[in-house]
Specification:
With about 280 residues, the chain is an alpha+beta fold. It has helices spanning about 5-15, 25-45, 55-60, 60-65, 70-80, 245-265; strands at about 20-25, 85, 90-95, 100-105, 115-120, 135, 145-150, 160-165, 175, 180-185, 190-195, 200-210, 220-225, 235.
Length: about 280
């Protein structure tokens, strides 16, 4: 018996490679989190880009958010009772800045197996004119298509990548979200998003969640156990951060991001905004 999701939503994830929109918080509740984010941006403009990766290790209130019962109940329904969060981060499109994400599959560079997900939680409205996510339903069953890195400075992707193999783009489906709604995508689904042509910010918070039996090759990585137990030991566990934001928090965040990015940016000259 599912804890939070309907059987239809669980079936949607299995068959189509994504699930949502899923209401997690009310618009009023999400408004409080947005105010906290934008206050941080105003107060710390020199390091605001660090929320691109592992943001929940930088801001304790985000750690509170990724432990929200509605969110974890939904993820347990999709992935089982034992869950890890390796990273989280914001993808923000300012009005008219041309930021976008070309068609891609997250699993091309982030090859955790057998399964992991990106959970996209809307801090703002996300409509087609704001550059909301588009997915190609069922493409998670196609295998990994060829990708290439680009020098596209407006790309929000880790390595500015895009798919180079042909596929039927006419199958794409737009997934608008209201503040507080979530869409969960499989690591192999083809997805992307256009530029924000509206007059408002589009704010996504991306949370990676996987079952504890998932892993990727190479050195042992760091993740936070957010629900259940870990009987596999593929990851070194991070404890939930406590206390106010400060220099020690920033230094710890940087150390975790650098360790993760040894694999994420292997073979690339690019660098994460979180390390700049």
């Amino acid at each position: 018996m599912p804890k939070f999701l309907s059987e239809a939503t669980i079936r949607q994830f299995d068959e189509e490679g994504y699930a949502g929109p899923i209401p997690i918080l009310s618009e009023a509740e999400m408004g409080v989190y947005r105010e906290r984010l934008e206050a941080f941006e105003r107060e710390h403009p020199a390091i605001a880009r660090k929320v691109f990766q592992s943001a929940h290790l930088l801001l304790p209130w985000l750690n509170e958010l990724i432990h929200h019962p509605n969110f974890l109940n939904a993820m347990e329904d999709l992935l089982g009772p034992n869950l890890l969060c390796p990273t989280s981060g914001f993808r923000i499109k300012e009005p008219g800045d041309q930021a976008h994400a070309a068609w891609h599959q997250d699993a091309y560079y982030l090859r955790f197996e057998p399964v992991w997900t990106t959970c996209i939680l809307a801090f703002s409205p996300a409509t087609p004119d704001m550059g909301c996510i588009e997915v190609v339903p069922g493409s998670h069953r196609w295998g990994i298509l060829g990708h290439a890195e680009t020098e596209d400075s407006k790309s929000l992707l880790l390595r500015h990548q895009h798919i180079i193999d042909p596929f039927d783009e006419s199958r794409a489906r737009v997934v608008p979200l209201k503040p507080g709604e979530l869409v969960v995508i499989h690591q192999r689904i083809i997805h992307g998003s256009n530029a924000n042509t509206s007059k408002s910010r589009r704010i996504y918070y991306l949370i990676d969640i996987m079952p504890t039996h998932s892993r990727r090759p190479g050195h042992r990585e760091i993740a936070m156990l957010v629900r259940g137990r870990d009987d596999y030991g593929h990851f070194e566990h991070i404890k939930r951060p406590h206390g106010a934001f400060g220099p020690e928090t920033v230094a710890f965040h940087r150390s975790v991001v650098e360790r993760r990015n040894v694999k994420t940016y292997e073979g690339s000259a690019k660098t994460s905004p979180a390390q700049m």
